[in-house]
């Protein structure tokens, strides 16, 4: 049978086939297990099945003997086409979002490393009862996923750490609660503190507060640190971290066997087949050289590509054609991010830009991810945030939202253009954030305020309404407190100056009167 030239022609072909079999629309709906209105839309070409219903659609095509006639462009790569599948939560792949403890059933390819870290934890506990270990790897090495799903998940539930009481404490929580409650009793207490590099990028006061809290924590439990390779030197120079950084566990890039497991085993666990051609092409893209060396940062890009491949597939089998539709590993981040952005209304696009600018901060010459409390995401920004969360490009956890992975900063050109355009804004904002953090960490002591309105760096920037939208509630509170304090202080100074002026004037008048009185007295004496 010749392939239909268009999607509309294929809809007409399906409708003709059901008429030849004398099937009513209700009968078609029963076969596909969908509402009659949905089936009618398929038959008249008004809409085509979302990824979540492609299996239902293929069941109908099998019944009509049309499964081999499906045109290749039937499944479009648009956000409207992939959003239902991504929101369904049934994907075997997580995209850019790191694995969590609850995702351990889908975590494969790093089992040996999980076991190595668990063995080091047990050894440290048996030797000292508590202490600190460092796990170091470059961005994209899967460090966060390994610590969450591999160590806190699989090793604690069925590996070397069975019986241990384990928890993860984010940097921001340790700053807020320097002595957190820990489950269980020593020596079988494990705490994972990931993304330590974020704490090392803080101003001096909160950074030292974090290091002191971390040292105290390591005196009570075994603490495993997650540190990016780029921060190795900085971490090693801190006395509190020196011992752990002197003998770190280094994460190597995954080998080809590891990558096969990453690709195949999550799909197999959900009954989804992966074509051999697709596996071969994916491995060739990840390790293009003759030595089969996998490029650094490959894991998040692969996971994102696999998520998109699954979203455009028929839900039962992942094929090379699906991979071409997704755009390949290197382009999948860009394509998915653009589809999400282009699906937004104009006002939502502007809100998305402001949101992403608030989710990045300047640290020296680098751009690092920042967290934003969900309470500070206003109603106009929520639709944009929800769309990027559905695409796994933003992650919400513990009442905060953040960019899922550093890979988005380096692979989405529109975001790079926003950051380049507003680099000066981000630089000013970083200095203001640092000042606000010092004020907050000092229990909002007025002595920690700075006269932001009187400084040439801040005053023009704060006068722009677009700049104020980038501030968090704490930063706006800092600016307001600064304005109030220094306005009040200025008024007090002015009152003091006025009083001094009056005193000087009164003193001058009194001086004149004294001199005049002296002259009168002298004249009287001379006359007498």
Provide a quick synopsis of the model.
The chain folds into four domains: 7-74, 434 Repressor (Amino-terminal Domain); 110-250, 3-Layer(aba) Sandwich (Rossmann fold), CATH 3.40.50; 256-418, no CATH class; 422-498, no CATH class. Helix content is 57%, strand content 9%. The chain is built from 25 helices and twelve strands.
Structural summary, described in words:
This protein is of the alpha/beta class. It folds into four domains: 7-74, Orthogonal Bundle (434 Repressor (Amino-terminal Domain)), CATH 1.10.260; 110-250, Rossmann fold (3-Layer(aba) Sandwich); 256-418, no CATH class; 422-498, no CATH class. Helix content is 57%, strand content 9%. The chain has 25 helices and twelve strands. A five-stranded parallel β-sheet has the order 2-3-4-1-5, with helices on both faces. A three-stranded antiparallel β-sheet has the order 10-12-11, with helices on one face. Strands 6-7 form a two-stranded parallel ribbon. Helix 2 (25-32) packs across helix 3 (36-44), helix 5 crosses helix 15 (298-312) and helix 16 crosses helix 17. The longest helix has 55 residues, at 473-527. The model has no long low-confidence stretch (mean pLDDT 86).
List the helices and strands and how they pair.
Blueprint: H1 7-20, H2 25-32, H3 36-44, H4 54-63, H5 79-88, H6 111-128, E1 131-137, H7 143-158, E2 165-168, H8 171-176, E3 189-193, H9 196-200, H10 204-218, E4 222-228, H11 232-236, H12 242-246, E5 249-250, H13 256-269, E6 273-274, H14 276-286, H15 298-312, E7 317-318, H16 320-326, H17 328-342, H18 346-358, E8 360-363, E9 366-369, E10 372-373, H19 382-390, E11 394-397, E12 400-403, H20 407-411, H21 413-421, H22 423-441, H23 459-462, H24 465-468, H25 473-527
Parallel strand pairs: 1-4, 1-5, 2-3, 3-4, 6-7
Antiparallel strand pairs: 8-9, 10-12, 11-12
